[in-house]
Write a structure and sequence with these properties.
Helices cover 56% and strands 7% of the residues. By secondary structure, the protein is of the alpha+beta class. The structure holds glutathione.
């Protein structure tokens, strides 16, 4: 049934949901928030996407899955003052590359460590977790010199790549602390936390910190 506003199936504590929430908040796009805390919203969501990975956006006849595609959809159908995908295709390519970096080399290993902890102890994957932690370490080391020269992930302008970086660096640091020697990554994470759109998403997620299986640190 078409609704006036786009309908977002998401959870406030979920990193990929926050990636989209940042985009919505940056341009103050009105939307119908179907929180997956709610059983009815959960049932609607499960019917929309058998993979059961969230967020999912329903906008008129469009059902959009995958956080990056949702941010791209919003940029196309609900453009605002903050252009999260640059108009210049070369600049857009840099944004899309950095978005892939944060999804694949920060979020994926971060989720691996967290999901492993949710398994019964007897079937945990110590080798896979060690590999994931090594990947996080490599990602921090690669990102650090880059962020010495950039305010935001793809340059001077806040973009889709920062929508990804914000929640992924936030949780990655809880999962595998970013050491002091990666001062540029730490400073970038602090800049992201100070951005009002992400600060709002972090605040909305505070009631759910007990869900973090490694134990949420008493900070941020
Ligand atoms: N590739 C998906 C990943 C989404 C994802 O992993 N979402 C997590 C929440 S942050 C999820 O659905 N977890 C539920 C599960 O794994 O069963 C995207 O970009 O949206």
């Amino acid at each position: 049934m078409p609704t006036k506003f786009p309908r977002l199936y998401a959870h406030p504590f979920s990193s990929y949901s926050q990636k989209v929430l940042i985009a919505l908040y940056e341009n103050a796009i009105p939307f119908d928030y179907r929180s997956l805390e709610d059983a009815t919203a959960n049932a609607e969501f499960a019917a929309l996407w058998p993979m059961k990975r969230f967020p999912v956006l329903v906008d008129g006849e469009h059902v959009v899955r995958e956080a990056t595609c949702i941010v791209e959809h919003l940029a196309l159908h609900h453009p605002g003052k903050v252009r999260l995908i640059p108009e210049d295709p070369r600049a857009a390519l840099e944004v899309r590359w950095m978005d892939r970096f944060f999804d694949n080399y920060l979020s994926t290993p971060q989720q691996k460590v967290v999901f492993d902890r949710l398994r019964p102890e007897a079937i945990r994957d110590a080798h896979g977790v060690a590999e994931a932690r090594a990947m996080l370490e490599t990602a921090y080391a690669w990102l650090d010199p880059l962020m010495a020269t950039r305010e935001w992930a793809a340059g001077d302008t806040f973009s889709l790549a920062d929508c990804a970086a914000a929640p992924f660096l936030f949780y990655a640091d809880w999962t595998h602390p970013i050491e002091a020697r990666f001062a540029n990554v730490r400073a970038y994470r602090a800049r992201l936390l100070a951005r009002p759109s992400f600060a709002r998403a972090v605040d909305e997620a505070r009631p759910y910190r007990a869900y973090f299986p490694l134990g949420a640190p008493d900070r941020d």
